[in-house]
Amino acid sequence: MRQELRFLHRGKVVELADVRPTETVLDYLRLRRGLVGTKEGCGEGDCGACTVAIGRLVEGRLVYQPVNSCIQFLGMLDGAELVTVEDLAQDGRLHPVQQAMVDCHGSQCGFCTPGFIMSLFTLYHAPDAPPTRKTVTDWLAGNLCRCTGYRPIVDAAMEACFQAADDAFSRRAEETTAALVEMASDPHDLRLGDEERFFAAPASLDNLAELYGAHPDATIVAGATDVGLWVTKQLRDLPQVIWLGRVRDFEKVEETPGGVLLGAGATFSDTHAFMARIDPDLGELWRRIGSRQVRASGTVCGNIANGSPIGDSPPALIALGATLELRKGSASRTVALEDFFIDYGKQDRGPGEIVTGLYVPRLDPNHAFRCFKISKRFDQDITAVLCALRLTLADGTITEARLAFGGMAATPRRAAKAELALIGARPDQPSSWAAALKALGDDFDPISDMRASDAYRREVARALLAKSLVEIGGTPDERTRVTGLRGGETSNAA
Q1: How far apart are CA 108 and CA 146, in angstroms?
Q2: pLDDT grade, residue 121 (50/70/90)?
Q3: CA-to-CA distance for 409 and 416, rounded, in angstroms?
Q4: b/e per residue, 392-424, with b = 16+ CB within 10 A?
Q5: Which residue, 2, 37, 49, 447, could crosslink 188 as a Cys pair with Cβ 3.0–4.6 Å?
Q6: Distance from chain centroid for Cα 214
Q7: What is the 3-state secondary structure (H, E, C) of the chain?
Q8: How many Å apart are CA 12 and CA 96, to the nearest integer?
Q9: Residues pairing with 267 in the sheet
Q10: Paired sense of beta strands 354-361 and 323-328, if any
Q11: Among residues of the chain, what percentage have pLDDT more than 70?
């Protein structure tokens, strides 16, 4: 058992033993280290002012990702490299990203600037990112500027970020990689604190199952993009935290002939390309989940396990027929994802039982899939209504329908009556599926809240089902996908 947190900062290994279970990276930087360049804005992972870069090894390659330090627990830095805005300038010279921000007048009041700089730093170190303004705006969707100074910031990114990295971090990449490899080779579990209050990071699935079995009331954390808000907004005391980030192979994504298997630690960033290969609507949905910072930390299985009725991924995965893997002690079981959600705040997961993985089937040639997310803001917003459906077609006739919605009930749920009414209908004959639109009104009794009214949700649900059927009934190629123009570039409309 190891009792010191270890991470890399400024080329040196930092070891800490006195770490509270829910101490955030932001508090550590500002209160312990006096590194106040990292700002606290919203405290909930929305504004990006607190963005720092975290370096980890991905298939042996050093990768820097932006994260919201306000909701990232300090213990989650174990085995990683931490980079803050104070670390970028070297020997009196600004980092290329910083210099471009100066040259392009990208800073106004300056409060948000450190967060933008750190997001752009990670883009600077992303060699495969397409050199377009669309790439930049997607990368910066999680950084808000109240002065509305986005254009010169995007200009700075275009000037600095799409060239071979040449900074202190690229020059010492081999040394950094070696240090991270050495830390990753430690086979011991991490345990900070005592029996009553602790932050723990088991190194294997067996050890995780044993620890959670002994402490079934502990809080399981993967990316903390939701749990972090329990601390910063709800002021909840979480005395026992178990982090999944060190469990061996939990971050793996494995393609099989029939589908994709996601480990419980696989993030939305890790899985995006795999989901996009299943269907472009699924890829676009993944891109619109939170921000770059949220997708780099948040996990797909975590999005499922927290049981939110407006979680983005469950309806789409239910429509695809995904199954969930769970384990308690030495016993494992598999459950259809649609059966995992029992009621509001209640899932089919017993005390001491953990989600270990997710299996997502591929689409067959006779399948048609559509997925649409409706929210007040296009990017980085919570769903008001999410519609996903998978139809099985034979000679143009629907023989099976899986239609799932989020935001329409206390759980993500299938529309059983509408599904039944779709059997025998033809997408190219609207009169044949009119009964399904009517039946959909009997499948759900949504509530009115700050995101949408009951009437709005009902009308949008019907419209999305009709939109999907019209598209599927059209020319059977990519032209059936209704697309929009944003910034002069065509994008999928999920």
Answers
A1: 10
A2: very high
A3: 13
A4: bbeeebbeebbbbbbbbbbbbbbbebbbebbee
A5: 2
A6: 29
A7: CECCEEEEECCEEEEECCCCCCCEHHHHHHHHCCCCCCCCCCCCCCCCCCEEEEEEEECCEEEEEEEECCCCEHHHHCCCEEECHHHCCECCECCHHHHHHHHCCCCCCCCCHHHHHHHHHHHHCCCCCCCCHHHHHHHCCCCCCCCCCHHHHHHHHHHHCCCCCCCHHHHCHHHHHHHHHHHHCCCCCEEEECCCCEEEECCCHHHHHHHHHHCCCCEEECCCCCHHHHHHCCCCCCCEEEECCCCCCCCCEEECCCEEEEECCCEHHHHHHHHHHHCHHHHHHHHCCCCHHHHHHCEHHHHHHCCCCCCCHHHHHHHHCCEEEEEECCEEEEEEHHHHEEECCEECCCCCCEEEEEEEECCCCCEEEEEEEECCCCCCCCCCEEEEEEEEEECCEEEEEEEEEECCCCCCEECHHHHHHHCCCCCCCHHHHHHHHHHHHHHCCCCCCCCCCHHHHHHHHHHHHHHHHHHHCCCCCHHHCCEEEECCEEEECC
A8: 23
A9: 299
A10: antiparallel
A11: 96
Average pLDDT taken over every residue of the chain: 94
Give the whole-angstrom CA distance, residue 158 versus residue 130.
11
Spatial distance between the Cα atoms of 242 and 259, rounded to a whole number of angstroms? 29
Is residue 295 within 8 A of residue 268, CB to CB? The reply is yes
Taking the CA atoms of residue 261, residue 200, residue 303 and residue 289 in that order, the dihedral angle to the nearest 10 degrees is: -100
Report residue 345's pLDDT band, with 50, 70 and 90 as the boundaries. Answer: confident
Residue type for position 367: H
Q: Are 422 and 436 in contact (CB under 8 A)?
A: yes
Whole-angstrom distance, CA of residue 18 vs CA of residue 27: 14
> Is 106 in contact with 156 (CB distance < 8 Å)?
yes
pLDDT digits (tens, 9 = 90+) for 148-185: 789 999 999 999 999 999 999 999 999 999 999 999 99
> Nearest CA to 469 among 416, 415, 417, 396?
396
Question: What is the spatial distance between Cα 178 and Cα 86, in angstroms, rounded to a whole number?
Answer: 23
Instruction: Please report, as a single letter, which amino acid is at residue 462.
Output: R
User: What's the pLDDT band for 475 if we cut at 50, 70, 90?
Assistant: low
Sign of CA pseudo-dihedral 463, 467, 470, 473: negative
pTM as predicted: 0.93
Assess contact for 50 and 115: CB atoms under 8 A.
yes
The pLDDT assigned to 492 comes to 47
Q: Are 365 and 381 in contact (CB under 8 A)?
A: no
